[in-house]
Amino acid sequence: MVAAVSRFFLYLLVTGFTVHISGMLYISDGSRFTTISNLTLFLPALILLVLDHRVRESLPSKRYLPLWVLLGFTVLVALFNPTSALSALDQLKTCFYILLYVIAIKILVDRNLMEKSFDVAFVIAGIFALVSLVYTFFYVDSNMFFDGQRIQKLGYKDYADFKNPIIAALYYGLFGVYGFHQLLTKRYSRFVMLVYGVCVLALSLYLYCTLSRGVWLGYGAAIGASIAFHHDQRSRKWLACTAVFAALILIWLSPMLLEQTDRGFSYRDLIWHDWLERLPDFWLAGAGAGNKFNICIDSGHCWAQAHNLYLQFFYEFGLGGALLLLFLIGSVLTRSLNKSNWNLPLGTIGFPLLVFAVLTALFNYHTVMSRPGVYWLVFWMPVGLVLSIGSGLRKRSEVRMHD
């Protein structure tokens, strides 16, 4: 009976996770998206946590300790810092959802379902990127590649509308990194390679059209990391052809690319300078969980965040929170370079995705303690993936050896 129930919720979980990460494109109603995610992702993860002792036994392990400490620290800040905008209960709820998100990833990795789920979501993202480009080109702006207008939505009704080009760039950029890495490291039929190649091209062109230079940096570095660590004799011919094709596209787009060099930091340098001037006021205890970094420049440009994950986290949670965040990132990055896990499914994708997350956090997103969405996909998904790789598989192999 328990096995049947577990199997049902496992199938529900893999469906829910796939819908959660791809549904941002086709579920436009926020409340409906939240309800679907709760019922098909977070609830099954919680039930499987209760039913499966292997999941429970792995969570207290040393690999998850930096995550536990970081999340616990944020709750303590919300509890004891009187200037926190969030209550300890609200912060605890957010941390609980993050844990369920990481647990869901672990369950899917242990059952060898994570790659299948992400492959489906990658193809869906590639199709939406392609349709967005085609629709925008024919119905909105035929000069979209050179007029400096930033794309952020499909253009038809409310589908794939991220409301912000940077968020759109983060979403499609992550899937572009994933697809490129899969093409580089896996063997596929010619048809699948063609489909994946078209998807990566569409995702890359969409990313270009967002004009999000910080995401461009993270995207290029992540792809460079994939090539540096995982190229082999088989992939070099494919890489050479890809490099020639990419060079031709860059030459074609070079007028707009060169124009972007004149945009400067888009006020980020002034925001960061103001953060530095305020540092003595919050460096030790932080301004409090959930507090906004409010700043106005030239009386007409106002923001409520530091435009940098590390600075915003430091602002809210102080020196201790910033150090714990960096320690978590460092420990996960170190683990992603453990070659003993590279022969496992998705064992090599963690490092490129983390490179993308870490670099884009410098310019393009400011929080990972918000509601589930694109920021979670960019940050917590690679963290959960790397922490999950090898754990369950190794335990099962050890059990077989003892038997």
In short:
By secondary structure, the chain is mainly α. The protein contains 15 helices and two strands. The protein folds into three domains: 51 residues; 181 residues, no CATH class; 146 residues, no CATH class.
What does this molecule look like?
The protein is an all-alpha fold and 403 residues long. The protein has 3 domains: 1-51; 63-112 and 273-403, no CATH class; 118-263, no CATH class. The chain is 71% helix and 1% strand. A two-stranded antiparallel sheet has the order 1-2. The longest helix has 28 residues, at 233-260. The relative contact order is 0.12. It comes from Pseudomonas caspiana.
Write the layout of secondary structure elements.
Blueprint: H1 2-26, H2 30-51, H3 53-58, H4 65-80, H5 88-110, H6 114-140, H7 165-185, H8 190-209, H9 213-230, H10 233-260, H11 268-282, E1 295-297, E2 301-303, H12 309-336, H13 350-360, H14 374-388, H15 391-402
Antiparallel strand pairs: 1-2
Helix pairs in contact: 1-2, 1-5, 1-6, 2-5, 4-5, 4-12, 5-14, 6-7, 6-8, 7-8, 7-9, 7-13, 7-14, 9-13, 11-12, 12-13, 13-14
